[in-house]
Amino acid sequence: MVLLYGYGLITDDNNTRKLAVKLAEATALASSITLVSKITIGRARPFLDKDIYYTNAFTIKDDYNSFPSEHTTLAFAYSTVMANEVDNVFWKIGWYSLAGLVGYARIYHNQHWFSDVLMGAAIGYFSGEFVSNQNSTEKEETLIKLFPAPNGFALQIIF
After folding, report:
1. Who's near 41: CB < 8 A, 6+ residues apart?
2. pLDDT of residue 141
């Protein structure tokens, strides 16, 4: 996302910069929802040979942070943002197929239950849709400011 934004900055392509920002926003939203869910629920991963309903709530141990799948969440968030950028059915099928393969791989490698992947896909999809459908201000100019702060310098990007 940083490289994409930098590319848009160098080439003076406002659409590329906006796409990078949408991807960053989708990442922040989807990851926040997923992280809170993982810690709150604490579902055991399949490789632990525990029951699908076994939970260890309010833990940060990776073995008990199966629900929902963050890899799948982010794959669907990115795919949804990208799919909404171009009005072409093959473009959309391609992006969602890639996201689906991520979910399949998580199940195949015994890291997640099917319901973990399904919920991750839902969170990612709706996060991507939310970000894509927000009305952004149609500013054509991006401002970058560097100013002194108490512990060094602060960078402000306004777009």
Report:
1. 55, 57, 67
2. 64
Distances (CA, A) of 29 to 23, 34, 36, 44, 86: 10, 9, 11, 24, 22
Q: Indicate the DSSP class of residue 122.
A: H
Q: What would you report as the CA-atom Rg of the chain, rounded to the nearest whole angstrom? A: 19
Six-digit token pair at 101?
């393969």
Amino acid, single-letter form, for residue 97: S
What residue segments make up the domains of the chain, in order of their start?
A: 2-158
Q: What is the pLDDT of residues 36-76, one digit of tens each?
A: 999 999 999 999 988 888 898 998 888 999 999 999 999 99
Count the neighbouring beta carbons within 10 Å of the beta carbon of residue 12. 9
Q: Are 143 and 157 in contact (CB under 8 A)?
A: yes
State the DSSP string of 77-116.
HHHHHHHTTS--HHHHHHHHHHHHHHHHHHHHTTS--HHH
Q: Angle CA(13)–CA(158)–CA(78) in degrees, nearest 5?
A: 60
* DSSP class per residue in 32-76: HHHHHHHHHH-BPPGGGT--TT-B--S---GGG--SS-HHHHHHH
- Model-level pTM? 0.80
**76-102: per-residue pLDDT in tens?**
999 999 999 999 999 999 999 999 999
